Fold each of these.
Amino acid sequence: MLRQLLQVVVWTLGIYAVLWVATLLVWPPEAAPRNVDATRGQHSVYGSDIREVVYSLPGFCQKLSSRPDVRRIIVLGSSSAKAYRPDILRSRLGADEVDNLETDGSNISQIRQLVTDLRTETARGSLKSVLFVLVTNYILFVSNKDKWHGGFTYYEAEKVRHGLYTGEANGITPVIGPRLMRFAVEALRPVFALDTLLGLSDGIGVELVRRFWSHPKVDVEFVRMLKRRFPQAQQSEFGEEQFIELDRLIREIRASGGDIMFVEQPIEAFERTSLPIHSEYWTKMVRFAKEHDVVLVDMSESAGDKEFSDPLHGKESVWPEWTERLASALRGLASGLVAEENKGARCHSEPLDVQKAVHSVGASARLDRDENTRNAETPFEGLIDCVSGHRE
């Protein structure tokens, strides 16, 4: 009996080893990637953006701990934040590293859970050279009750899915130490591959919806969805819970030695002009940024409706252009090239008028990039001075 059991174990391990090698052939791991980019999950064994973030995090935290002086930008947000490409931002802003840790379907609570892991799983002082760029929009302010119905966030659900973490909602903890976590993640490659294969049909359906999005002036189903998600949208307490979460997020990032700025993402015209939800949100967002001394860059009108694949997401083909626009605005913010009529927004929490800013900095930004007339470190350092210096 013992011999038969041993044979079963050996055969099982052998088959698993073959499957593990097969996943390496189908989804070869990238050799020492310099950063974390959630969109790699679309082509990796993990099969989704949020899994790419969850299972890259143990190695990423070790890197943060071992290199605390690296000048780093970390992009946060929901799925729409994937438009901002790390390589372009790094080269245009002169940062040492740029990481995109967007997590699909987020509200502020889910983003705060991710940042909490970055703070608690890294050595003290690891975030002192990090600037967090939070890509904001009104969808991030759906309450936890309406978003998660009292259960796990998507981020938490993915963490507990394969037994590497345990606990209840808002109380997830790893079952093994950080040094072993990376090896455990690698060992689970066949499991991730199976999940990815099972999820391919869902991905195809989403892609078909986006491909045939017709850009109506007002999409009735989209508005109905918003009303379901924001039942209190016309009331004064709109987003109150998530603004409290955002306040905590800011305080925690600053306490860790890092800093944060907001970038309001591009959205279609009908959302800006026809949705009371957005109007209510934007009034509160501007006031919140001012009260908390957070730089707010408004990119909401920086894209035409034809650039969207759905009301909140840019087509993948325009991602580089969107990133260039943001980089130009941030370079202007850092170097003081923003038009005077922005009333000092370059180092203040008043929302930056990107239409004027891009117009005023575009020529010099292109000159700097093409002719190497400016020290590559200057934009990042100027941005850090802008974001943190105006609070002193």
Note: The first strand starts at residue 72 and ends at 76.
Amino acid sequence: MKLSDSYLNKSYYVATVLQQMDELRKEGFDVQLKKKIFFKGEFFTADLYAENGSEKQIYDFRLEEGQEHPEERDALLNSICESVDAKPVVVEITLPEERQIHFEELDDILFSYLSTTTLLPELQELPGDVSVCGVKVNNILSATLESANISVSGLAKLYISLRYRISEDEEQGFSTSCDSFPMSFTVSLDNNFNCQTFEYEIDLSGFELKKPEEEPRSEENKNYVSKIRFDAEFKMFQDISEALLTMTGSAAALFPNGVSAPPKKGDEEELTLRAEKAAESHGEANKVFMRNAPFMPKNMYRILETVAAQCEGQLLRFNRAYLSDNSVSSEQDIQTGRLQREDISELQASFMEELRSYLESLDVR
């Protein structure tokens, strides 16, 4: 069931009021909903009344649509506030534009194309060996459907991994970093969703190559921290590592290899269970990563962001291959899923190596 616009508008109104109440309480205000204020022989109902000592505020929440004669309402609100020595606050509620175009397979279509075709010229100019790890479509701006062609334009984020040399050591002289770049695109697809043409623009202005250390860390260049900070960071990275391993483990179960048994298409209960576990662990891991993003080195967060995007892609492939009625792309999704599993494992190992190096650089005072 799809909610009508009137009910959606009410939900945005309620959510805005509740958020404002929570913020005011944190600032020490006593708040009251729908407070009646007697004014010129009549009762005026304030959407929200807040009081903190001598400071009083009366809130009027307004949706963009359906407001008639706002000047008269402003004048009335100001008069009422003057009568009770309160500050008038008008909150305009901006309703988000409804997304009309949904194309769940577009992420994987673009990724499959970019990871199998010749590397884009802009990416070839980056130092080291570059590989495309994933694509996340953020917004579809337009779509045109013709008899034998589908044209889609939008905005996306392109994830890459970069392997480059940091020393002459043949075994340990390489490092791997991850990055993501905003990309606008227009893609033309045939009726089987195969890419016919692909036009794009990538913004590489935010690219930063991690510089290798010229010499091993010594007592002079160690990063000294207090025991309190070290314990806090250690606990944070334990939580991050646990969330990462749980997410990648659930994603690996979608497309197992080696001695692990692959899922059977007829076993709906087992298939649904694997998908639910993968979706739940992905959601929980994303929360942990984003919550701790400001407190970890940038490259470590980029690796986590890339792994999360790849695990999300694995879930979409699994749903198409095993839980949908479309059998055309099933075998291709299964093959791609098994290859992506290896990429995820490599990125996970890169994160653990980054984490190990970071922790070794800390010295507790």
Note: Residues 31 and 135 are 45 Å apart (CA to CA).
